[in-house]
Specification:
Length: about 130
């Protein structure tokens, strides 16, 4: 079976594999050759695979994993490495911090939009009370 991990800018991994482990919202799962077709949204996590007894790792910033004949992963950002401790400690912490920052930014933008809508509604309703709209 073949593994492809792609980001919007590049193909990060393209190799033959014996097995794969990944994580979605339901937890960790494994893929072996002959797996049934499968589609899932990945968590910010480390994907690992085995090729001829050697383990390889790739930190992914979420994404989508599909299994047909091969395994394809599309993600926003991916960093490969052979040292799991480094990927886990540094890269995942950075991915999670960036995801948290994006959530804060989205929340702030939504708050600004809601405040603007409240002001418009307030002005429209105060204008109607004054008899401006008939």
């Amino acid at each position: 079976m073949k593994l492809r991990i792609v980001t919007p800018l590049s193909v990060v991994v393209e190799t033959a594999i014996d097995s794969l482990r990944a994580e979605d919202a339901g937890g960790s799962f494994g893929i072996l050759p002959g797996h049934a077709p499968f589609l899932t949204a990945l968590s910010v996590s480390v994907v690992s695979w085995r090729t001829a007894g050697a383990h390889h790792f790739c930190a992914v910033r979420g994404g989508v994993l599909t299994v047909s004949r091969d395994v394809d992963i599309a993600t926003r950002e991916a960093i490969t490495g052979d040292d799991l401790a480094t990927l886990d400690a540094e890269v995942l912490a950075r991915f999670r911090a960036e995801a948290d920052a994006e959530l804060v930014d989205r929340t702030a933008a939504n708050t600004l939009q809601l405040n603007a809508i409240r002001r418009m509604v307030s002005r429209l309703s105060s204008g109607a009370d004054a008899g401006e709209f008939r």
